[in-house]
Task: inverse folding
């Protein structure tokens, strides 16, 4: 295990989310500890400053990224998120990862797979003294994620699962992490203020104020490869389950499936990494009088989740130092759409702060 003063982070999938994460660590590395940084719980979280995060390894399968330094690869095609920090050379090469189902039908039309065999993930993670690995694979990469998780368990790393493949919330995989004495935070990252957190809070507001929610939809569209991937409906299933469950878990009653629709609606290339979300909610108030609410949200998708990942990897490292194993319930509930246990967001925050303090 590496020096406790550092959090050595490995990245699977060097896409927009990885780009925003790497840029974010560079952007805030000199932040004062008493500063309130947008999107971070704390500049110093549990003894780890943002600058204590070091990138140790990276894996991808696309020829524009494999073999490049991570600092270069984060800006390579088809990445298209906003560039808000200049990243110096990191001396972290992007290794050839495992493809499996990681490249979808539409993505294969615009990228070329790198030549050569899959690199030795286990030995790379061990040699680089990686503490925590973040999964940024494309939506629907079910087989690829499970293959990587096996390697990560073998390498002895903590795991942050930012995508909607169910690992932390699965009894089988939870047990595997417990058996290996390793922590996991998952599943499916909840952005700083994204479509899901906004929809959840509005749903909680309806419940708290005694409005019955009758119908609701959330439609999202954007121009990054995530939306391109989701044009394949079979890759969408876990995403829809994750996003829908995050909203309905706030209700004390069952909402019939035909009365809620949560999911992407389309891919619009010129939007690049901007994401648009439209939420509509129809409810019943006092005297059976109707109430209708409509919201439109526009965000840059990748930076919207980067701060959450910075907090998540530090919580994962704290857990490793404390010898905790298996799913971290409070951080998972605060950071993720599909945690092993769903709490309302205010309680999830409270419990996560208590976790950080070691209570």
Result:
């Amino acid at each position: 295990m590496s020096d406790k003063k550092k959090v050595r982070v490995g990245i699977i999938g060097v896409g927009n989310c990885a780009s925003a994460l790497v840029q974010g660590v560079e952007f805030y590395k000199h932040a004062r500890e008493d500063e309130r940084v947008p999107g971070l719980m704390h500049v110093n979280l549990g003894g780890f400053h943002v600058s204590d995060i070091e990138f140790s390894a990276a894996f991808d399968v696309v020829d524009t990224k494999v073999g490049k330094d991570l600092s270069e690869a984060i800006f390579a095609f088809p990445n298209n998120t906003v560039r808000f920090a200049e990243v110096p050379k990191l001396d972290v090469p992007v290794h050839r990862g495992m493809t499996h189902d990681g490249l979808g039908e539409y993505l294969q039309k615009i990228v070329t797979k790198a030549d050569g065999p899959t690199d030795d993930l286990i030995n790379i993670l061990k040699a680089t003294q990686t503490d925590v690995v973040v999964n940024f694979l494309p939506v629907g990469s079910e087989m690829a994620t499970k293959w990587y998780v096996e390697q990560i368990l073998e390498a002895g790393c903590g795991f942050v699962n930012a995508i909607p493949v169910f690992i932390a919330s699965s009894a089988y995989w939870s047990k595997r992490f417990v058996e290996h004495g390793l922590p996991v935070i998952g599943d499916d990252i909840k952005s700083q203020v994204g479509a899901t957190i906004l929809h959840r809070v509005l749903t909680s507001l309806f419940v708290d104020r005694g409005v019955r929610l009758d119908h609701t939809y959330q439609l999202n569209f954007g121009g990054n490869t995530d939306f391109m991937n989701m044009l394949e409906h079979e890759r969408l299933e876990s995403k829809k389950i994750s996003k829908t469950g995050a909203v309905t878990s706030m209700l004390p009653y069952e909402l019939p499936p035909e009365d809620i629709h949560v999911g992407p609606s389309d891919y619009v290339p010129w939007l690049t990494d901007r994401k648009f979300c439209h939420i509509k909610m129809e409810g019943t108030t006092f005297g059976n009088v109707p109430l209708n609410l409509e919201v439109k949200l526009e965000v840059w998708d990748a930076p919207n989740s980067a701060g959450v990942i910075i907090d998540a990897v530090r919580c994962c490292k704290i857990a490793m130092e404390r010898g905790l194993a298996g799913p971290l319930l409070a951080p998972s509930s605060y950071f993720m759409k599909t945690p092993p246990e769903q709490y309302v967001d205010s309680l999830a925050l409270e419990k996560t702060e208590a976790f950080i303090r070691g209570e």
Q: What stands out?
A: The first helix runs from residue 16 to 27. The longest strand covers residues 274-285. The mean pLDDT is 95.
